[in-house]
Each structure stands twice: as structure tokens, then as C-alpha cells.
């Protein structure tokens, strides 16, 4: 299979890179000084594209690769891939569902705990050498707080299961009420936000869910409420979030994703009631290896004419 | 004479508030409706007072007790009571209570918070983003997955049990060490901490500090835990041999640590300040308004039980 050309869009995992290199003629787009020329030069041999949550096959790239057969994404989010175009051209798309669910849900709980218990602020304080006996600050208890989940899919359910172990009542919003859960359903995000203390975004990013957390939702969540975003940056109206936090209309936020990654609004850097992570929801050694194996496994299956492991299209 | 009559008629039992200047009992005003409070060992009431509230880590020594010949109850406001001379209390027939379950959920939450922070590098990654390094440096180094980790709990009391319950929901397996095997518990028991460490990826220290548990996490235990192992301490600083722990961390002989307590608080070994695989916190696992509300109820319930000769709510028991 060494003759099959595979285009990797950005560096994402060294193990994945090695495994692809061993099997295919791997083209690393980020190493090319002139990307359009690079793509044009290899267009006749590239039959697969490997991308991730921040770099996918858009319409332009798909048009530029006439021999493209499959897009294998190193992510569960596929909003950077033009799925309609892929369907139209008969290009297969695979992703990495399920295997990253636990890591993302773990991080959601980690962010809730870190924001409520002011963990990062405490760590900064101790490291500054300023700790004096009797000088303490109260933080907010997590156990028992009501957790509202936007999108009760795999990740939302995993967050709910963990939060239940902290005796947290669970409620949710999704497009339709789920018949197989006992959690309380609210038919709108504003109602959900009014009735919970911690609101977590765990739905896919689509046209309908863009800015699903807007000013009205933040105001409903209120000055004691905490927003957790482990979904996608554009789920949240970021300028509105910044002003809600600065004006104290929102109690705190734990963010793993942003609208213009890796740019993070600098106004947030000085706030103690926020925790800012660099999109590490699935960033564990264990999970990234399983994801890499799935990307490679899907490509292998495709080129051996076997059923795909985790097909989306 | 009128004043004296009033004092005699005051039905509220007398209680001594025993505290260091830097530690004030939160919500102390709420006690006044139930009890007559005073706060000096030197005051005349000291000879007749039967109950004392020990605030925070204020020492209760044989010398303290010598001032209080009628004392029959020490109400602690913390979970651990290493600052109270328990042997001396026992000898004098003085009962001792602790905070009971008041803090358990908060401390268990905090242990999980520290563990998630160490494994997923939350505080270190937050520093990375705030310093503006993300656009320049690109992807942040990978952390470790919590699910599937073998958790060893040192001291399966009320806090340890709450920790176990939470971590099982993350797909972890749990084993424990305590003085005695608990018949009602299904988690595997190890009679010594070394064997627990050999069979664990993470040790969570939440037992009481006593002569037997001092430095229970020593060089041998750290070696047994190994290079990928993580230590979480929400108990007391002296449960861990801090000098050894610092050496292990600096030399990369252990994976990481999340510490809310230290041997010489508020002093923290400076070698730790430069490490990204440790999370440091200024002994505040219990400090939430919800804790204080719960503590207040426990204190009042213990005192009321004592003064009406009923069983105490949370007599101190070692795990």
C-alpha cells in the first residue's frame, strides 16, 4: 500500500504519523511552503485525507483532490468537513466516536470542580509563596449542585453519570425529550439555564446550535451560575460571555474550547472565576492512541475493501 | 445580686470556645441561642465548664485540660484530631467528637478535583493559556486518562468512602487500607500500605494522623507506587514523608502529586513550585459555606446530646 497517497492536514499525534508513514505515502501539508501548489502537485496520488477537529476536508480541498476516496478524521467533531460534498461525490468519512467520550466527560467534571473550588487560583496562590496561616478563602461546594446538560448524547450521558456520583440532580435540553432517561427535560436552553447551577455544553456544533449559549441564556444562568464548554467554541457567544463574566452577570466559566482557537480573549486572563484550557478534552496518551488506531484501521479497511470500523458517511 | 440571679436562671449550658487567635469558628453567633459561651481558660467559669469546642487546629493538651477540672466533652471542629491529646482525654474520661460527616463530601470532591487536575494537567494548562503560549507553542502535552486507574484509598472512613463512590463512576477500580478490614465493604483490602501501593496507580491519603500513621507514605511506599504513580493528600501533611516526596517528584521517580496539606503549613517546599505535575492548595478542602452550615449542625447536635445524656452524634473513631 506504500503507493497510496495520504494527506495529513496538520500535526496531531506522533504515533499516528509514524503508523501512517509505515503504511502509506504520507504527505504532511504543514511542511509545504506553498500549500496550493503542494496539493496540486500530489493530487493524482492522494486518495485519503486525515484531519481532526480543527482541520478537515472543506469543499475547496475536496475539489482539488480528484482521486480522494476517504476522509478519516482524528476527532468526533466533523464540523470542519463538508459532509454534503463528500456524500455527493461518494467520498467516505470516518470519525472516532465513543473512544473519547470518557475523557471529555472527565474533563467536564474536572472543569466544574476546578471552577467551583478555585483550584487553579489556589495553586497560583501557593506557588506565589504568599500563603499565610489563617488567610483563607471560601469556595463553593460541588456535590449536590444541579447540573444542566445541553445535548444528552454519549458525552452528555457520561457527564450525567459522573455528576450523579456527586449527588447532583441532572436536567437537560435536547431537540426532543428522551424516553429512556429519568433526568428532567426542559424544552428550551433558557429554561434549563434558569433551573440549574452548572450548565455544560455537550452537543454537536450545527447551524442550529451555533451560539446556543447566548446573552439570554447566560443571564438566566445568573451570577451564581457556572458555564462549562467542552463542546465547540462557537456554541457560545464569546464576546457576550466575556462581558457577562466581567460584569458579574455570570458566576464563572470553565472553557476547553473557544471561537477562534488558539486565540483566547485576553480579558479572561485576569479573572479568578474562570479556568482556561487549550482544547485538551481528548488529550490523554491512552485515548489518543485508541483514536490513532481507529484512523489507521478505517483507512486499512477501506483500501482492503472491508467494512469501515466507524463510518459516518 | 440581680445579675447573679439572672445567671443562675439562664438555662443555657456553659461552653468554652477554645481557639487560636487566627482561627474563629464560623457561624459562632448561632450557638448563642443554645449555649452560654466564653473563650478564656483564665476566666472563673473554667472550673465548672463541662464542654469545650475546639476550633480548627487549636491544641488541646494535658495542660489545657488541667485548667478544666469539670470537663467531660471536647467537641472538635475538624475531621482529624491530631491536635487533641486523645490519650489524655481518654484517661480523664473526657469524650471527644469530630466534624462527623460535615466535611466528607467537600473533602471527597476536593480529592477528585486534585486527581483530575494532576492527571489532566488542568492548573498547568490554565497557566499555559493565561501566559499566552498557546498560539506560539501549539498543542499542549498529553495528560493521562482517569478511567481504568487503580485507586488505593488510605483510610476508608467517611471521606474515603465518598471518594470511592465518586471514582467508581469514572470507571476506576478501588482498593483500600485501614487499620481493620471492613466487613460491609466489597473493595479489596490490603493490610499494609506498601502492598496497596504495589497494586495501585493512585494513592489517596485520607486517614487520621496518629503516631501509627505518621509518615505512612514513606520512601518504600513511594517506590512501590512507581514512576507513573500519583499521590493525593487531603488528610494531614505529616501522613507523607514530605522530604522524600519532594525528592521523588524532582527526580521523576513518581508521576505526580496533588497536595492540599503539608508538613509545616503554611510553608511549602519551594522545589515544588517549578513542577507542572503537582497541584498545590492551601489546606482548603473543607472550606465552603456549605461545610460550615453542616459543621454548625454537628456541633450543636453533639452538645445537645451531651447535655441531655443522649448518645453523641459523631464520637471520634480512627479509621
From TrEMBL, chain A:
The keyword NADP applies. One of its GO terms (cellular component) is cytosol. Its EC number is 1.1.1.79. PROSITE patterns: D_2_HYDROXYACID_DH_1. Transmembrane segments: none annotated. Residues 109-281 form the D-isomer specific 2-hydroxyacid dehydrogenase NAD-binding domain. SUPFAM superfamilies: Formate/glycerate dehydrogenase catalytic domain-like (SSF52283), NAD(P)-binding Rossmann-fold domains (SSF51735). Coiled coil: none annotated. One of its GO terms (molecular function) is glyoxylate reductase (NADPH) activity. GO terms for biological process: photorespiration. It holds the Pfam family 2-Hacid_dh_C. InterPro entries: D-isomer_2-hydroxyacid_DH (IPR050223), D-isomer_2_OHA_DH_cat_dom (IPR006139), D-isomer_DH_CS1 (IPR029752), D-isomer_DH_NAD-bd (IPR006140), NAD(P)-bd_dom_sf (IPR036291). Residues 13-310 form the D-isomer specific 2-hydroxyacid dehydrogenase catalytic domain. The keyword Transmembrane does not apply. Belongs to the D-isomer specific 2-hydroxyacid dehydrogenase family. This is glyoxylate reductase (NADP(+)). The gene is HPPR_0.
Automatic annotation (TrEMBL), chain B:
Residues 112-285 form the D-isomer specific 2-hydroxyacid dehydrogenase NAD-binding domain. Residues 45-314 form the D-isomer specific 2-hydroxyacid dehydrogenase catalytic domain. This is glyoxylate reductase (NADP(+)). The keyword GTP-binding does not apply. One of its GO terms (cellular component) is cytosol. Keywords: NAD, NADP, Oxidoreductase. Its EC number is 1.1.1.79. Gene3D superfamilies: NAD(P)-binding Rossmann-like Domain. GO terms for molecular function: glyoxylate reductase (NADPH) activity; hydroxypyruvate reductase [NAD(P)H] activity; NAD binding. InterPro entries: D-isomer_2-hydroxyacid_DH, D-isomer_2_OHA_DH_cat_dom, D-isomer_DH_NAD-bd, NAD(P)-bd_dom_sf. The gene is HPR3_5. It comes from the Eukaryota. PANTHER family: 2-HYDROXYACID DEHYDROGENASE-RELATED (PTHR10996), GLYOXYLATE_HYDROXYPYRUVATE REDUCTASE HPR3 (PTHR10996:SF268). The keyword NADP applies. Belongs to the D-isomer specific 2-hydroxyacid dehydrogenase family. One of its GO terms (biological process) is photorespiration.
Amino acid at each position: 500500500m506504500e503507493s497510496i497517497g495520504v494527506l495529513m492536514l496538520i500535526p496531531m499525534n506522533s504515533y499516528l504519523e509514524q503508523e501512517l508513514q509505515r503504511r502509506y505515502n504520507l504527505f504532511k501539508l504543514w511542511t509545504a511552503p506553498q500549500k496550493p501548489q503542494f496539493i496540486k502537485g500530489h493530487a493524482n496520488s492522494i486518495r485519503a485525507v486525515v484531519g481532526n477537529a480543527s482541520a478537515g476536508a472543506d469543499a475547496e480541498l475536496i475539489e482539488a483532490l480528484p482521486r480522494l476516496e476517504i476522509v478519516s478524521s482524528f476527532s468526533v467533531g466533523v464540523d470542519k468537513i463538508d459532509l454534503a460534498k463528500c456524500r455527493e461525490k461518494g467520498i467516505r468519512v470516518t470519525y472516532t466516536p465513543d473512544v473519547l467520550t470518557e475523557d471529555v466527560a472527565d474533563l467536564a467534571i474536572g472543569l466544574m470542580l476546578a471552577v467551583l473550588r478555585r483550584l487553579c487560583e489556589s495553586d497560583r496562590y501557593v506557588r506565589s509563596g504568599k500563603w499565610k496561616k489563617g488567610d483563607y478563602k471560601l469556595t463553593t461546594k460541588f456535590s449536590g449542585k444541579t447540573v444542566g446538560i445541553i445535548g444528552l448524547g454519549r458525552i452528555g450521558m457520561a457527564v450525567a453519570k459522573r455528576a450523579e456520583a456527586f449527588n447532583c440532580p441532572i436536567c437537560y435540553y435536547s431537540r426532543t425529550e428522551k424516553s429512556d432517561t429519568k433526568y428532567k427535560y426542559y424544552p428550551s436552553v433558557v429554561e434549563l439555564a434558569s433551573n440549574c447551577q452548572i450548565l455544560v455544553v455537550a452537543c454537536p456544533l450545527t447551524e442550529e446550535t451555533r451560539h446556543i449559549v447566548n446573552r439570554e441564556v447566560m443571564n438566566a444562568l445568573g451570577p451564581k451560575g457556572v458555564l462549562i464548554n467542552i463542546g465547540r467554541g462557537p456554541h457560545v457567544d464569546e464576546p457576550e460571555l466575556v462581558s457577562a463574566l466581567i460584569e458579574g452577570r455570570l458566576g464563572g466559566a470553565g472553557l476547553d474550547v473557544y471561537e477562534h482557537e488558539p486565540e483566547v480573549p485576553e480579558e479572561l486572563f485576569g479573572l479568578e472565576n474562570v479556568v482556561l484550557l487549550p482544547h485538551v478534552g481528548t488529550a490523554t496518551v491512552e485515548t489518543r492512541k485508541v483514536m490513532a488506531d481507529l484512523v489507521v484501521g478505517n483507512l486499512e479497511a477501506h483500501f482492503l475493501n472491508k467494512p469501515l470500523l466507524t463510518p459516518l458517511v | 445580686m440581680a445579675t447573679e440571679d439572672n445567671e443562675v436562671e439562664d438555662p443555657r449550658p456553659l461552653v468554652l470556645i477554645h481557639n487560636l487567635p487566627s482561627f474563629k469558628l464560623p457561624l459562632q453567633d448561632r450557638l448563642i441561642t443554645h449555649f452560654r459561651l466564653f473563650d478564656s481558660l483564665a476566666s472563673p467559669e473554667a472550673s465548672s465548664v463541662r464542654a469545650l469546642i475546639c476550633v480548627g487546629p487549636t491544641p488541646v493538651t494535658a495542660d489545657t485540660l488541667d485548667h478544666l477540672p469539670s470537663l467531660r466533652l471536647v467537641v472538635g471542629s475538624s475531621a482529624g484530631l491530631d491536635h487533641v491529646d486523645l490519650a489524655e482525654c481518654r484517661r480523664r474520661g473526657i469524650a471527644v467528637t469530630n466534624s462527623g460527616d460535615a466535611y466528607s463530601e467537600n473533602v471527597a470532591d476536593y480529592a477528585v478535583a486534585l486527581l483530575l487536575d494532576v492527571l489532566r494537567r488542568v492548573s498547568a494548562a490554565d497557566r499555559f493559556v493565561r501566559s499566552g503560549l498557546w498560539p506560539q507553542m501549539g498543542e499542549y502535552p498529553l495528560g493521562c486518562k482517569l478511567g481504568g486507574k487503580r485507586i488505593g484509598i488510605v483510610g476508608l472512613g467517611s471521606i474515603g468512602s465518598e471518594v470511592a463512590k465518586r471514582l467508581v463512576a469514572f470507571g476506576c477500580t478501588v482498593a483500600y487500607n485501614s487499620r481493620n478490614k471492613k466487613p460491609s465493604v466489597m473493595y479489596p483490602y490490603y493490610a499494609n500500605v506498601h502492598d496497596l501501593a504495589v497494586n495501585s496507580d493512585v494513592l489517596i491519603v485520607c486517614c487520621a494522623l496518629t503516631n501509627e500513621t505518621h509518615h505512612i507514605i514513606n520512601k518504600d511506599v513511594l517506590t512501590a507506587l512507581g514512576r507513573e504513580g500519583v499521590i493525593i493528600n487531603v488528610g494531614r501533611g505529616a501522613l507523607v514523608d514530605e522530604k522524600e516526596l519532594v525528592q521523588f517528584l524532582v527526580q521523576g521517580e513518581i508521576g505526580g502529586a496533588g497536595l492540599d496539606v503539608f508538613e509545616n503549613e503554611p510553608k511549602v517546599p519551594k522545589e515544588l513550585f517549578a513542577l507542572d505535575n503537582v497541584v498545590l492548595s492551601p489546606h482548603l478542602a473543607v472550606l465552603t459555606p456549605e461545610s460550615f452550615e453542616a459543621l454548625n449542625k454537628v456541633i450543636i447536635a453533639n452538645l445537645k446530646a451531651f447535655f441531655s445524656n443522649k448518645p453523641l452524634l459523631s464520637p471520634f473513631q480512627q479509621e
